[in-house]
Amino acid sequence: MIYSFINFENQLSNSANAYLRITLKFAMLSIACLLLSVTSVSAFTFYVATNGSDKFSGKLAHPNAQNTDGPFATLTAARNAIRKMRQSKPTESFTVEIAAGTYYLTEPFVLLPEDSGTATAPVVYKSIGTGAVFMCGMPVSNFQVKNGLWVARLPALLAKQGFEQLYVNGERAVRAKSPNNGFFAPEKVVETVIEKGSDRVAAKATQKVYINGNDAGWLKAVKKEEINKVVLTFYHKWDNTRKYIDSLNLTDSSVTVRGQGMKSWNPLNDKTQYIAENFKAALDTAGEWFLEQPGTLYYKPLPGQTIQNTTVLAPVTQQLLVVKGASAAQNVSFINFENIAFKVTGYQLPALGQEPVQAAAPVAAAIIIDYANHVNFKNCEIANTGANGIWYREGCSNSTISGCYLHDLGAGGIKLGALKFGADTAEITNHITIDNNIINSGGYTFPCAAGIAVFHAFRNTITHNDIADFRYSGISVGWVWGYKPSVTHHNTISYNHIHHLGWGELSDMGGIYTLGPSPGTQITNNVIHHIYSRTYGGWGLYTDEGSSDILLENNLVYETKSAGFHQHYGKNNIVRNNIFAKGIESQLQMSRVETHQSFTFKRNIIYYKQGELFKTNPKKYWENAVTVVDSNIYWNASARQPNFPFGGLEEWRKSGHDQHSSIADPGFVDAEHYNFHIRNTAVIKQIGFKQFDYNKAGVYGTKEWLDKAKLSKAKLASFDELMQSTNKVFSEH
């Protein structure tokens, strides 16, 4: 290439401009230097395969004929080889090619600062095709059939440490529980404080849970030796509490649990729901399992399952991959993972149980990353987890997770940021991109977890994800209650498809939920629908305590139980150019009056057939709050007049609101079947509404990828059945 440029330069005529000749020489010199710098970075490939050996060099993709050399058997051997070679070749670019197959781990794969690459010489771990699967699970075999159950003695490791999840033919099996469907509710809960705490919650306390007489059957079925192994999972408002039974009293039909005191703002009471799991008598339904100490597994097979066609895996660790930098200055950097499946991890409840924490915030993940820069995941799969999928936790930056499939999750999918922050911004996670991922079917261990949770983190981009089938919020942003200083700001949440959340198990949730000040944060072009809470609080866009300086624009929200938009309290939020449609109980809601401006609500379309337009409240929030509400379209498709604060639209206008708004049919193409494209352009032009292409929300790519994001027809039908009961109640309102 250099010779060609020189030859071209010599062919210039003698009369050519001297300046051009000099410029060309400098250009050729620059290109030559660039080529030399690029060619100075060489690439080296190590290989890993299921038929490899860590005694081999790892330099061959397949074992040689003599079986004296070939690929490594483990990622650890490949990592160690890179460490050693980098000492003499610091500019080398390394690729670890992993052959298709299943690789069983008994401990996490760990990467430290010395395992880093560079911007020009990254380290790449990639599967050849998409067939490499890493599992922190151990197969359970040698089953025998006894009384309709499969029974197996466990390997020594599993028998010693136990497990609380089980995966059968790649699917999560159900730990023996009661009831099999739905929940129990206590008659009452009485707390005894043992030691007061420094805040509003007692440091130590017991809670005596009185069992309803109709539900006492499970209590009597628990064997004496099982009592302290039975786990109660309580569902109360937006939280879960998970506790072992401390004692059981058949005389008054009660059980006692211990730990911290209850939170006064969300205690256990007769409105709480719960399930009881992990006792043998509950093993009464196909697909359930029970682990009897010291190491006997029982499984009740599903129809069609035989010992010969069934694979059973029990998790042996909580993490599959740990990326652990030492500090912000000494981090792990420039490592890529491509086309790899990470599956089968566990979670074990601590001896004192799990106290309620919003969004299951402290619960760990299968992949944990701390102090890392440019650590990326592309086209990977994370599934069958005991807790969360992946957590970019402390001091992470400039990293991307894209094209990944996260499903069958014990908690949430992706978490960003730590739960505390200090003065050093280098410690705060930032500039993480979450794009084009499918994140669905989670909350099996911790129902209160969110699909994506952003704690203390800034300037992150969350786009084009499909988030569905969780028991709580889809995306949660912020970790400051009220107006205290926050480092969560300038986050972009756009073009996500968020749907089928709640399942009637918890309350107080949002398709997109925000918390605390978040200047510069933009929530735009998302599609949110089918949000169904247990009681109150199934909202689409939900700006909770202290949410401030957030733009919510060009979002389509429909089929929410409580309202399409709800602000608890906040400051200077802008809600603009959105479509809120087909809310069940109401369409718009707010819950606090403050002296500052709470939000601006302009150029929105509100369309409904049942429930209220503005959620009424005896405290008259809408009537007394400081808001700017104007240039909106309201339409009740049932032909009833919309209800406004103070009465009708004219009375509402007297308060200064909706001066340029109208009651008019926006002319959706087919709202009944969720086609919200607008035909009546003249009406929307009057308020300045700008049409947006909501079909761009969600994942993009091949038909196979788009189809993978769709929930099964059976699951959709189950969700619709849940919503019908509420629909019937409010269809007459």
UniProtKB/TrEMBL annotation:
<dbReference type="InterPro" id="IPR011050">
    <property type="entry name" value="Pectin_lyase_fold/virulence"/>
</dbReference>
<protein>
    <submittedName>
        <fullName>Right-handed parallel beta-helix repeat-containing protein</fullName>
    </submittedName>
</protein>
<dbReference type="InterPro" id="IPR039448">
    <property type="entry name" value="Beta_helix"/>
</dbReference>
<keyword id="KW-1133">Transmembrane helix</keyword>
<feature type="domain" description="Right handed beta helix">
    <location>
        <begin position="366"/>
        <end position="502"/>
    </location>
</feature>
<dbReference type="InterPro" id="IPR006626">
    <property type="entry name" value="PbH1"/>
</dbReference>
<keyword id="KW-0472">Membrane</keyword>
<feature type="transmembrane region" description="Helical">
    <location>
        <begin position="26"/>
        <end position="49"/>
    </location>
</feature>
<keyword id="KW-0812">Transmembrane</keyword>
<dbReference type="Pfam" id="PF13229">
    <property type="entry name" value="Beta_helix"/>
</dbReference>
<dbReference type="InterPro" id="IPR012334">
    <property type="entry name" value="Pectin_lyas_fold"/>
</dbReference>
